[in-house]
Design a protein that fits this description.
The chain has about 250 residues and is α/β, with parallel strands linked by helices. It has helices at about 45-55, 90-95, 100, 110-120, 135-150, 165-185, 195-200, 230-250, and strands at about 5-15, 20-30, 35-40, 60-65, 70, 75-80, 155-160, 185-190, 205-210, 210-215. Bound molecules: adenosine-5'-diphosphate and magnesium ion. Adenosine-5'-diphosphate binds near residues 18, 46 and 47.
Length: about 250
C-alpha cells in the first residue's frame, strides 16, 4: 500500500486527570483527498484535529505527515477554526498575510499572492477594508484565504461554516472544494452535519466516544455541484451515514 499523506496510527489522548477522549484511532488520508470527520458534539473531533495539527501530543500512537512525525504546527499545515478569529485592527489583506508575517516581512510577491486568493474568493474589492465591515460569510472567506496563503499541503478545518446561514454555507463549501482542487490540498474537515460531510468528502470517518466507528466512501462525481443534493444518490449516502451514526450511538 502506498504511504499515506497523513497517517494517524493507534493514537490515544486524555486531558490531565481525565478519561481518554481519543482512544486508539487509526486513519489514513491519501495526498489530495478530502476527508470529513463526523460526529456529535463532545465525541473528540476537535481534540483529534489538534493532535493532527501538532497542537497536542498523543500519549500513545503516532501521527505522521509524509512519513515524518508531526511535532509542532508549521507551514506544512493550515488550520481554520469555527470562528473566523480575524484581527480587527488589521486590514483584510494584512489578516490574510498574517501567517507570512509570522515568518518574515511580506514582500510584493506575497501581497500579489494574497490578493489573488482574495480575488478567487470574490473579495478583491474588500482587501483594504477592516473585518468588522464584512458579513459573516465574507469573514469566513478571509479566514480561508489566510489558512491557504502559505499553500499548505494539508488543511485542517474545525466546523468552519457552522455559524453561517445555509445558502452562504453552501457557497463557502463550493469555494473550499474549488480552491483545494486547484492547489491539490489534502483536507481533514470536522463537522457534525451529515449533509455537509456527504457533499464535501471523498471519505467520511464517523466518530463516537473518542473512536472512529465507521469508514464510509462517498463515490459522488467531482466536481460537486449543488444540484447533487437533491439526487437519489446523495440521499442514499446521507441515509447510510445517518444509519452508521445511529447504530454506534453517535
Ligand atoms: N482542554 C480540555 N480539558 C479537559 N477536557 C476537555 C478539554 N477540551 C475538551 N475536553 C473534553 O474532551 C471531550 C472531547 O471534546 P472535543 O474534542 O472538543 O469534542 P468535539 O470537538 O467533538 O465536540 C469532551 O468531553 C470535552 O469536554
Ligand atoms: Mg469541536
Amino acid at each position: 500500500m502506498a504511504m499515506a499523506f497523513l497517517d494517524i496510527a493507534q493514537v490515544s489522548f486524555s486531558y490531565p486527570g481525565r478519561a481518554p477522549v481519543v482512544g486508539g484511532v487509526d486513519w489514513r488520508i491519501g495526498q489530495g483527498e478530502f476527508h470529513c470527520l463526523l460526529g456529535r458534539s463532545g465525541c473528540g473531533k476537535t481534540t483529534l484535529l489538534k493532535l493532527a495539527a501538532g497542537l497536542l501530543r498523543p500519549q500513545a500512537g503516532r501521527i505522521a505527515l509524509c512519513g515524518s512525525e508531526i511535532a509542532a504546527p508549521g507551514p506544512q499545515l493550515g488550520f481554520m477554526f469555527q470562528a473566523p478569529t480575524l484581527l480587527d485592527w488589521l486590514t483584510v489583506l494584512d489578516n490574510v498575510l498574517l501567517p507570512v508575517s509570522l515568518q518574515r516581512r511580506p514582500g510584493p510577491q506575497d501581497e500579489a499572492h494574497a490578493l489573488a486568493l482574495l480575488a478567487q474568493l470574490g473579495l478583491q474589492a474588500h482587501a483594504r477594508r477592516h473585518p468588522r465591515h464584512l458579513s459573516g460569510g465574507q469573514q469566513s472567506r478571509v479566514a480561508l484565504a489566510r489558512a491557504l496563503v502559505l499553500e499548505p499541503p494539508l488543511l485542517l478545518l474545525d466546523e468552519p461554516f457552522a455559524a453561517l446561514d445555509a445558502i452562504t454555507r453552501a457557497e463557502l463549501q463550493d469555494d473550499l472544494l474549488r480552491t483545494c482542487r486547484q492547489h491539490g490540498t489534502t483536507v481533514l474537515f470536522v463537522t457534525h452535519d451529515i449533509a455537509e460531510a456527504v457533499y464535501l468528502a471523498d471519505r467520511i470517518a464517523v466518530m463516537h466516544g473518542g473512536r472512529i466507528v465507521d469508514d464510509i466512501a462517498v463515490p459522488l462525481p467531482a466536481p460537486r455541484s449543488q444540484a447533487l443534493r437533491h439526487g437519489p444518490e446523495f440521499n442514499a449516502l446521507a441515509a447510510r451515514v445517518r444509519e452508521a451514526m445511529d447504530r454506534s450511538g453517535a
